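Action item from last week, closing it out:
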Amino acid sequence: MRRITKMMISAGAMVAAVRAAAQEAVAAAPVPPVATTPVPAATPSLLAPEAGIGQPTGGWNLQEAVTPIAVEGHNMVYNILNPVMFAVAIFVMILLAWTVLRYRAGANPVPSKNSHNTTIEVIWTVVPALILVVIAFPSFRLLANQYDPPKADITIKAIGHQWYWEYEYPDNGGFTFDSVMLTDKEAAERGSPKLLDVDNRMVVPAGATVKVLTTAADVIHSFAMPAFYLKMDAVPGRVNETWFKVDRPGVYFGQCSELCGSKHAYMPIAIEVLPKAQFDAWVAAKKKENGIVDEPAVAAAGAAPAAAPAAADAAAPAAPAAAAAAN
């Protein structure tokens, strides 16, 4: 047994010596230079953020609505839900105060023997049901409008990664780009709110119905834009669909609203809404940056040579006829 132990110790020492020699050899080996390919600069943003629009203001109100669905959602909150909640809260507080004063031990030295009150039980069952019915009708209408989009003018695919967004424009040649949060210094230089702006914003045309397809590459994310009243989960292996339409040009900020990991709070969404002409210029710049040529132009160029022989063939029979008419 002692001999076996010595042999094991010797073998361990040899392995350690070989490992140390290998590490020294790796450390002494020269590091070859790595050739890098310069990344083309991103297309500069054309609009600056507007204070109080499309970003949190620190107040208790919702962000200003800029889409038809957001306007309907705000009406639901301010005109139905909030009044109902305030009325119920005030009624409960009054009822609680009245119960404490009316049925305290000092005013009732002999406790009541009653155990049931049919009238009260009917009221506290029927009234909440009626309140839910009042809330249900506008709520169902809002949900139906939110998930019954009009025909899309443009489709954009938003892919969630840990922890940034990737955008794809399948209607414009399929170019893609990553959207990563700016550092505090970069945001200050751009004049953007802290932790909300990105290096490459999603850009859409004003007045267009935008279909957003959401998915994820790793874990569940959520594409949320409060000013649009928009929130849709991005699930790996699945494509979800949502939409929005913004008439007001500007820059709007949101965030991933699904707990997606340690840097969940550093995964903002920035959408830049441009007038149609500026959006077309931005798309043209992105296509040029990615080497994309419009298919209609290529098809027209290929069809032009074929059209010339056809025109010559059509003109050939007409020449003898014209000569005969002249004779």
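Closing note: Strands lie at 154-161, 164-169, 175-179, 202-205, 209-216, 221-225, 230-234, 240-245, 250-256, 268-274.
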